[in-house]
Design a protein that fits this description.
The complex is a heterodimer of chains A (about 200) and B (about 160). Chain A is built from 8 helices and 4 strands; from the N terminus they run H-H-E-H-E-H-E-H-E-H-H-H. With about 200 residues, chain A is α/β, with parallel strands linked by helices. Helix content of chain B is about 20%, strand content about 25%. Classes of the chains: A alpha/beta (about 200), B alpha/beta (about 160).
């Protein structure tokens, strides 16, 4: 009854949708730029394409101050443990956009040196194809991520990140026990995952 | 007088083969006489070691030795260049030049990393580019191109998926 007396001053909603509405409109991007996609990303942030129109203007170069990582370019196997550490250091809740074919699948680098897609080591939310993708594609990727955030449940997002932390703990344990480098530990974990016929290591 | 002519005059016994191609001068030396030749090159003024690399001739019957380590020298005064090749069997090693030329330090580490050729007397012969427990040496011809990638297709070169 009291709600009626308040008239339009109160809106009832679900917690998920109101929190996600806030999250999707205040993404703090962090560029993980390793190649030409990062050059293309500069124009996405600059005045002509201007990503701030989508609420993602506060770019930070520290993982501690950001919640949307854009992986822009080729990631080598040697970088894989570093990418995992940086992803772990980001503020929660966090999202990842894989920009360009190199980050998404290794692209044209079908070699021993290149990580064949960053989704082998960290969870990815949106893939943006292209070599490099046009700025419009990257903005489309951010819009797609916003649509995804809109629909997701808060507890599922939490579990998603927790599963990654568990895999990082597992990696550190193997690394300590077997005295391996981070790179070799990840290679071994991937090999084990392929042997067990599971898709990922997290 | 070109460096090739003076080398052939001063130490003909250590030179296995030599040739010129469009101004490039190349000598092929035996591993045992390599240091003698390097000392001679230094005294001739070849003071800059530009590059060290190697070639894997696995399966090529016209090459009796599996590896060929290739050195490029430059004489900074006369701007004359010389290529020196040393043929090595598998598990043979070469004396390190890291004491004589600073540049040799990382080049030899790279050759060791990529081909598994060891250089005796090197101060720190560890891998340069790949991580320290990387399995194998990637530029050897018997190394799978994708490095034994566990998620690759069935027609790949990986030895791990079959």
């Amino acid at each position: 009854m009291s709600e009626l007396s308040l008239n339009d001053a109160v809106v009832t909603t679900r917690l998920d949708s109101v929190v996600n509405w806030a999250r999707k409109n205040s993404l703090w991007p962090m560029p993980f730029g390793t190649a030409c996609c990062a050059i293309e990303f500069m124009s996405v942030m600059a005045s002509k394409y201007d990503m701030s129109r989508f609420g993602a203007e506060a770019m930070r170069f520290s993982p501690r101050q950001s919640d949307m990582m854009l992986v822009l370019g080729t990631v080598t196997n040697k970088m894989a443990p570093i990418l995992r550490t940086i992803y772990a250091q980001m503020a929660e809740p966090k999202w990842v956009i894989s920009v360009g074919v190199c980050a998404s699948s290794g692209g044209m680098y079908r070699t021993y040196a290149t990580l064949q897609g960053i989704d082998r080591v960290i969870p990815v939310d949106v893939y943006v194809p292209g070599c490099p993708p046009r700025p419009e594609s990257m903005i489309y990727g951010v819009i797609k991520l916003q649509e995804k955030i809109e629909k997701e449940s808060l507890s599922m997002r939490k579990d998603h990140v927790r599963r990654f932390y568990e895999s990082l703990d597992r990696q550190e344990k193997i690394q300590m026990n077997e005295g391996l480098t981070g790179q070799q530990t990840i290679q071994n974990m991937l090999r084990q995952a392929a042997h067990d016929k599971v898709a990922t290591i997290f | 007088m070109s460096i090739l002519d003076s080398l052939l005059e001063k130490c003909p016994s250590s030179i296995q083969d030599s040739y010129r191609f469009r101004g490039d001068q190349t000598v092929i030396v035996a591993p045992t006489s390599f240091v003698t030749l390097v000392d001679l090159l230094i005294s001739e003024g070849f003071n800059f070691l530009v590059d060290i690399t190697a070639v894997d001739w696995l399966g090529k019957t016209e090459h009796p030795a599996r590896f060929e380590v290739v050195y490029h020298w430059l004489n900074l005064d006369s701007q004359e260049r010389l290529r020196v090749k040393v043929r090595l069997q598998e598990n043979e090693s070469l004396p390190s030049l890291a004491i004589k030329f600073k540049t040799a330090d990382w080049y030899e580490r790279e050759v060791y990393d990529m081909f598994g050729i060891s250089f005796s007397g090197h101060p720190n012969l560890t891998r340069l580019l790949t991580w320290s427990d990387f399995p194998g040496h990637p530029l050897r011809k018997d190394f799978p191109l994708d490095g034994g990638d566990p998620f690759c297709m069935s027609d790949s070169t990986s030895p791990f998926t079959h």
